[in-house]
Amino acid sequence: MRIAIIGAGFAGLATAKVLTQAGHEVRVFDKSPDVGGVWSRTRRYPGVTTQSPKAQYSLSDFPMPKSYPEWPSGAQVQAYLAAYAAEFGLESALRLNTEVTAARPAGDGRWTVETRDAGGAESVETFDRLVVANGVFCEPLVPAYPGLEEFTEAGGRLRAATEFHDAEEARDQHVLVVGYGKSACDVAAAISDVAASTDVIARQLLWKVPRKIGGFVNFKLLLLTRLGEGLFRYLRLRGFEKFLHGPGNGLRRRMINSIGSVSVRQFGLAKLGLVPAGQMEDIVRGAIGLASEGFFEGVADGSIAVHRDRTITRLFGGHGGPAAELSDGSTHRADLVLCATGFTQGVPFLPEETRRRLLDERGNFMLYRQILPLGVPGLYFNGYNSSFFSPLNAEMAALWIAADLAEAVALPDPEAMRRAVVEQLAFMDEATDTHHCRGTKIIPFSMHNVDEVLGDLDLNIGATVRASHWLGAVNPAAYRRLTPLLLRRLTPSGPPPEPGSNGLMPVDSFSGNEEVPYDLR
Asked: Model-level pTM?
């Protein structure tokens, strides 16, 4: 089949690689000039690094370079994805600097895709299937503040954090950073040395997890394990989770909240006045953030000021220059306002009728397994499952798509799928207090999603290896045999040769910690 893929980030590239190996002809469209999605040079803000360590943020069959730090920079991740595209022969399928302006059903599951390149040239092609992989962090959400026109006339600038690429733009400027997630704290730390002042406007404080808990234990050994995920109650409990949320509930709560206690002590949050409300157990109801290097140190030395439980009520321009008024009535000079206030999850290129089928009455995406929309033939989504292991989740979703294209997924009837989606959304409403990005965030249930997707395919790594991931950090490399296994099943003559596929260990014994036969040079 000829398959169009919208987006050249982790999800788009992983889908392109798997479908190409399955014998399909793919085209990958992205309006950026380079691959990478959120890691594109057009979207990287100063100070951005991965939130997960490099092993957990890698695709299963392409490890990040040993020379990379534990938490790679945005530029390093983009270089890694460019190398991935080259390694697996995807470059000829890429259509960069090309925006999909419309995608319409053309009957029999086919889609007509309209595009416009950077030079303004327009094109129309019809494909057998369409995969939307533009990501849940595609379009930044910037609040519509009153007084913006007056503020701008006075010389003030309002920008999304992802549109801010050079810390030097903040030199000698009075900067307000709106938000308290990782991107807000990353930016604040990155500009605090050059800005005249750096003020963080935090509507709500979030718990921050140290990279090294107690200064020496990598947080991945606590939260990026199956045990760490099992500490949070899932829709369907299984195995040891039944103990953790039954007789072991007290132990479970102490395990989670002890991390919060360590964070308070390690960062001196009480002295800084930055202890979040509630307990660490509540992180699932908001966002789970890795502490930005240098942020709390900046607060301690006065180079960063945090205004907790505050919002900007209006922007204005006065005799003293552009400024902002906060919800407590205070005013602050604001030459530059950077908004790290989230993203909209949108598919504006799809027809209104299609969008109505995709979304429920509250605007949540109705996707079976976070992949398959209900009642929209020939359309798939990938990357609409933001998680701790987004690359792995996207890669396993790509396997699911490949299997479904070959009619090798035993799907429930449409009504059963709809009930499953409604049940999942209702559960996530309760688990996250509706903070699930319109149904596209599955944190902290990353591995539950992996297991469910692979369960549909009757394909998974061995139980022994999965058990090892209960106490050791989940390593996506343990899943690297699954793609050739699935392709061999779908194409009995065997899948195309795969770089680095010789001499692999049996899937039941490969834990992901062994040496791999090649690395990114």
From this structure: 0.91
